[in-house]
Design brief:
By secondary structure, this protein is mainly alpha-helical. The protein contains 23 helices and 4 strands. It has helices at about 15-20, 40-45, 50-55, 100-110, 115-120, 135-155, 155-165, 165-175, 185-200, 205-215, 220-225, 230-240, 255-265, 275-280, 290-310, 320-330, 335-350, 350-360, 365-370, 375-390, 395-405, 410-415, 425-435, and strands spanning about 5, 55-65, 70, 90. α8 (about 165-175) packs parallel to α10. This is Putative rugose.
C-alpha cells in the first residue's frame, strides 16, 4: 500500500507528472529535495517549491500506524481543517503489516555467514531420482550474486565477511564443488563487486577487497578447471580494466601479487608438464584443463597484467625481478620459457633505468647463461638479446664489473658452441647487435644491414671469444 494524500487545491499537470515519477513507494511530505536525487532539476523544482507540502490536508502513511489508527503525517505547520485530531481509523479486519529490509532480516538470523553452508550443498542430489537430476549451476550463480549484492549495499555485511573470512570460506567450498557451478554469471558477480569496492569508498572496503583478490580472483586453484571462456574473461579483466584505477595500489600488495602470479604461471598454467625436465610437481591435473592454445592466450593476459603491475610506480622492485629470474632459472621446458623471457626482454628494453640496476643487483646474468645452454636456438637468441639490452644500457664500469672478472665473454662462446660447432646467421646477428650496441627486439635470420655511420663499437676485444676472432667458430 502506498501513502494517501489529500491536497487543498487542484494539482497542475506538471505536478501530477512529477508525483508520478516518484513512484508508488514514495511516502514523504515533498519537503526535502535530497530524497529524489535521480529526478531532473525541472521536476525537483515542481515538487519541492513548497506548494505541494503546504497544500497537504492530510497524509496517511502505512508505516505510520498505531494499532488500528492510521496517523496523520502531514506537516504540522499546515492549515488544519479538522475540529479533532485527524487520525484515521482502520476498518475492523484491516491490520498493519510491518516489513523489514533484507539486511535486517539477514542480521536477525545470524548474518551473511549463515548462507555459507549452502555452498557445500551445491552437488547434493535434488528431486526424487537423484542420479537422473541434472545439476543446476544457476543456484550457485544466484547465491553468489546475492552475497555480492549484500556486500555492495551494506557495511554491516562487509564487516561480517571480513570477521568470518567469508571469501576464504567461499573459495574453499567452491573448490570442493563441481566447477560447472562457476559460470560466467558467477564471475560477473565477483567482478561487479570488485569494481564497486574500487570505486565506492567504505570503511571496510579496502580490507574486503584484499580478501576478495587473495582468495577469489588471484586464486588459480579455483579457476583452473572452470570453462575456458570464464578463465579468459577473468584474466582479460585483470590485464585491462583492473589496473586502470590509479587507486588500486592502495589495495593490492604489489610484490606479493607479482610473486603469486609467477607461482600461478609455474605450477598451474604451464604449457608443457614440467615434472620430467624441471622436477616441478605441477598442479591443475585433477580436472579438465584448457588446451595448449588457450593456455598460451591466458598466459599472455597474465603477463600483460604482470608487466603493468611492475611498471605502475617507480619501476621494477628487486624482489619482483628476483621472482622472474627464479622462474627462468628453475624452469627448463622451452615452451614454458618463451613468453616469460620475452616479457623480461621487453622490460629491459623499454625501462632500463630501473631494470639495469635491479638486474645487476640480482645477478641476472646467471639466468642468462643458464638459458644460453638451451637446445632451442630461439631461447638462446632471446637470452642474447636480453644480455645485449643489459650491456648496452649499462655504464662502462658496470659492464666491466659484470663480465670481466669471470671472463664471461669466453664463457659466452662456450655456451653458444655447446650444441653446435658453428654460429648460425641469427646468432651472428645478435652478437653483431651486442657489438654495435644497437639491439633489435626482432630475431633476424638473414644478413644484417650495413652499419650506419654513427654506429660505434664499445670494446671489440670483448667479443673476440664469441665468434669474431675465435678459431673454433666456423
Amino acid at each position: 500500500m502506498s501513502a494517501v494524500y489529500l491536497f487543498a487545491e487542484a494539482l497542475t499537470a506538471h505536478q501530477v507528472c512529477a508525483i508520478h515519477r516518484l513512484g508508488p513507494g514514495y511516502q514523504s511530505q515533498f519537503r526535502f529535495e535530497g530524497e529524489s536525487m535521480a529526478l531532473p532539476e525541472s521536476l525537483k523544482r515542481v515538487l519541492y517549491d513548497g506548494k505541494l507540502s503546504s497544500a497537504l490536508v492530510f497524509m496517511y502513511n502505512p508505516v505510520a500506524t498505531d494499532s488500528q489508527l492510521c496517523l496523520q503525517a502531514a506537516p504540522k505547520g499546515n492549515v488544519s481543517y479538522y475540529v479533532h485530531t485527524p487520525h484515521a481509523l482502520m476498518l475492523q479486519d484491516v491490520k498493519a503489516v510491518t516489513t523489514y529490509s533484507i539486511h535486517s532480516t539477514l542480521n536477525s538470523i545470524g548474518g551473511i555467514q549463515v548462507l555459507f553452508p549452502l555452498l557445500a550443498q551445491l552437488d547434493l542430489p535434488m528431486g526424487l531420482v537423484p542420479l537422473q537430476e541434472p545439476r543446476r549451476p544457476s543456484i550457485c550463480a544466484t547465491l553468489i550474486g546475492f552475497i555480492c549484492e549484500m556486500c555492495e549495499s551494506s557495511n554491516t555485511v562487509q564487516q561480517h565477511m571480513i570477521q568470518n573470512k567469508g571469501f576464504l570460506v567461499m573459495s574453499y567450498q567452491l573448490q570442493r564443488a563441481s566447477r560447472d557451478h562457476i559460470t560466467d554469471e558467477v564471475l560477473h558477480s565477483f567482478l561487479s563487486l570488485t569494481k564497486h569496492l574500487l570505486t565506492v569508498y567504505s570503511s571496510n572496503g579496502e580490507l574486503l577487497l584484499k580478501h576478495l583478490l587473495d582468495h577469489i580472483l588471484f586464486n588459480p586453484a579455483l579457476w583452473i578447471y572452470t570453462p575456458t571462456a570464464v578463465q579468459t574473461k577473468l584474466y582479460a579483466y585483470l590485464a585491462t580494466e583492473f589496473l586502470g584505477d590509479t587507486q588500486i595500489y592502495n589495495n593490492v600488495r604489489r610484490v606479493s601479487t607479482v610473486l603469486q602470479t609467477m607461482h600461478t604461471l609455474k605450477y598451474y598454467y604451464w604449457v608443457v608438464n614440467p615434472r620430467n625436465k624441471s622436477g616441478i610437481t605441477p598442479k591443475g591435473l585433477d580436472g579438465p584443463r584448457p588446451n595448449q592454445n588457450d593456455i598460451l592466450a591466458i598466459r599472455a593476459y597474465m603477463l600483460i597484467f604482470l608487466k603493468q603491475l611492475i611498471l605502475k610506480g617507480n619501476g621494477v622492485k628487486e624482489d619482483e625481478l628476483q621472482s622472474i629470474l627464479n622462474y627462468l632459472t628453475t624452469v627448463h621446458e622451452d615452451e614454458n620459457l618463451h613468453d616469460v623471457l620475452q616479457m623480461l626482454m621487453n622490460l629491459m628494453a623499454e625501462h632500463p633505468a630501473s631494470m639495469v640496476p635491479a638486474f645487476d643487483c640480482k645477478n641476472g646474468v646467471r639466468a642468462i647463461f643458464k638459458l644460453l645452454g638451451s637446445t632451442n636456438e630461439s631461447i638462446r637468441l632471446q637470452a642474447l638479446k636480453l644480455l645485449g639490452y643489459f650491456l648496452s644500457r649499462s655504464t662502462h664500469k658496470r659492464k666491466h664489473d659484470v663480465m670481466t672478472p669471470h671472463n664471461l665473454y669466453m664463457l659466452l662462446a662456450e655456451r653458444l658452441l655447446l650444441h653446435s660447432d658453428h654460429l648460425t646467421m641469427a646468432t651472428y646477428n645478435a652478437l653483431y647487435e651486442m657489438l654495435t650496441e644497437h639491439i633489435s627486439s626482432q630475431i633476424l635470420y638473414t644478413k644484417h644491414s650495413e652499419p650506419e655511420s654513427h654506429y660505434r663499437t664499445g670494446k671489440p676485444n670483448d667479443l673476440e671469444g664469441c665468434g669474431y676472432a675465435n678459431p673454433s667458430v666456423k
